[in-house]
Amino acid sequence: MVASIPTAQQRILLIDDDDLIAGSLRSYLVKNGCKVDVALDARDAERLMGEAAYDVIIVDPYLTGGIHQGNGDLLERVARLQRRAVLFVLTAYSSPELAQSAANCRVAAVLTKPQSVLHLESLVRGASTNTRSFS
After folding, report:
1. Alpha helix (H) ranges present in the chain?
2. How many helices and strands, by DSSP H and E, does the chain display?
3. Is 111 helix (H, G, I), strand (E, B) or coil?
4. 3-state secondary structure of 13
5. Which of 34, 41, 78, 91 is deepest in the core (most CB within 10 A)?
6. What range does the domain containing 109 cover?
7. CB under 8 Å to 33, separation ≥6 — which residues?
8. 5-16 pLDDT per residue, tens
């Protein structure tokens, strides 16, 4: 399968404390024309979201074992700080609470780990064709 070359470079934020997953996904997306930043913890994610607007954010809300980080729910903070971004959850720990939080935060899809990079890339590419008019 040949990856499509994007017409406009997408800006993506990966929020995952698993270096291997974040690094592998970043490498793949960069090779296929995306601009990708990685945050390994909630504090770094918040800093990056304050510095740039993202088209797509892929987040594992269970960084270091808990959905609640610092001053509230990570997924809610991502949705609030990046209202125009298309959000995807990528996690090994699905739950009814996460499904409810994802619905409240307008998450496009909740995906379980492990996930094919080809599938993730197709979701990211599809996000660029959607109109991001959330507010």
Report:
1. 19-31, 42-51, 74-81, 96-104, 117-129
2. 5, 7
3. strand
4. strand
5. 78
6. 11-126
7. 5, 6, 9, 10
8. 444 578 999 998
Check which CATH number belongs to the domain holding 77 and give it.
3.40.50.2300
Predicted confidence at residue 64, as pLDDT, reads 61
Calpha distance 63→41 (Å, rounded): 7
Q: Is residue 2 part of a domain?
A: no
Does 3 map to a domain? no
pLDDT of the residue at 131: 39
Give dist(CA 77, CA 83) in Å, integer. Answer: 10
Determine if residue 102 is left, alpha or beta; phi over 0 gives left, psi from -120 to 50 gives alpha, anything else beta.
Answer: alpha
Q: Around 54, how many Cα atoms within 13 Å sit in the side-chain half-sphere? A: 31
